[in-house]
Amino acid sequence: MITKRIFTSLSLILIIGFSITQDWLASLMIIAFSITALYEFFTMVERKGIVIFKYFGLGVGLIILLSVSLRFEVTRGWELFFVTLALLSLMLIQFRLRENSGVIIGLSTTIFGIFYIAWFMGFLIKIRYLDYGAGMLATVLLITKTGDIGAYLLGSRFGKHILISRISPNKTREGFLGGLLFSLIAALASKLFMPHNFSYIHLLILGLFLGILGQLGDLSESLMKRDCAVKDSGRIFPGLGGALDCIDSLLFTAPVFYFWIMHFGF
User: Fold this and answer.
1) CA angle, 27 as apex, 64 and 262 as ends, to 5°?
2) 27, 72, 86, 173: which one has the fewest Cβ atoms less than 10 Å from its Cβ?
3) What would the mean pLDDT of 160-186 be, rounded to a whole number?
């Protein structure tokens, strides 16, 4: 398992590292991961017997990501406007169905999946399109995923105290602190990729926030997997699981990083 995890991780690092160099290629990679992860999420939910609008949700998610990638905005906040239209469409579709049971859960879960995965992942595309976008995208990926690595390595080696047993018996307090330490180190190393006026103090604060949020993203997906009684969201990546397992920690860090950058005007 460890060998598979290392080999898969190194392969993904090389592929993603290369894709970051071109904005269109980075967008394509992000869209591919996002739609695969959204499919895995909907499939997990279906295991619970919840009737959702799976392919409608996938279509809406794809349109949102494509609109971000193509920089298509009929109005500011176009994605939210489109999700509103999608919800209205879902209600109209529901009117034509004969079954009323589980309507609220089905509609809510479909919209949640679109927001949770497609909309949040769209911020990675927005980051790539910023000035210094390649370096900024590399920074958010480095801080977030290095935190994942640190949590796994130090948690496996020194972990003794379970973080939240009802969510994941394998995640420990030592792993959480180890992941946070690795994120802080990665944040300092990211100075190489960021604009020259981005100070080390800024990077440390950003590393702290993203380090915590990344692990909260991981815990959030673990909570949903526990609810759906599955170990991994999929099996597409040997040793790592599914696409959702790979991007779960980025779902919270991507929008926060983007708004941070926009707020401080870098």
Assistant:
1) 75
2) 72
3) 88
In this structure, the number of other CB atoms found within 10 A of the CB of residue 103 comes to 14
C-alpha–C-alpha distance, residues 148 and 155, integer Å: 10
**Length of the chain, please?**
266
Is 218 strand, coil or helix?
helix
Q: Report helix, strand or coil for 163.
A: strand
Q: Among 138, 117, 95, which residue's Cα sits nearest to residue 43?
A: 117
Distances, alpha carbon 200 to alpha carbons 130, 177, 203, in Å: 20, 21, 5
Total count of domains within the chain? 1
Residue pair 210/187 in contact by the 8 Å Cβ criterion: yes
Residues 6+ apart with CB under 8 A from 200: 188, 191
Confidence of residue 130 (pLDDT cuts 50, 70, 90): very high
List C-alpha distances in Å: 135 to 21, 104, 130, 220: 9, 42, 10, 27
Structural domain boundaries enclosing 10 = 2-264
Cα–Cα distance, 264 to 185 (Å, whole number): 22
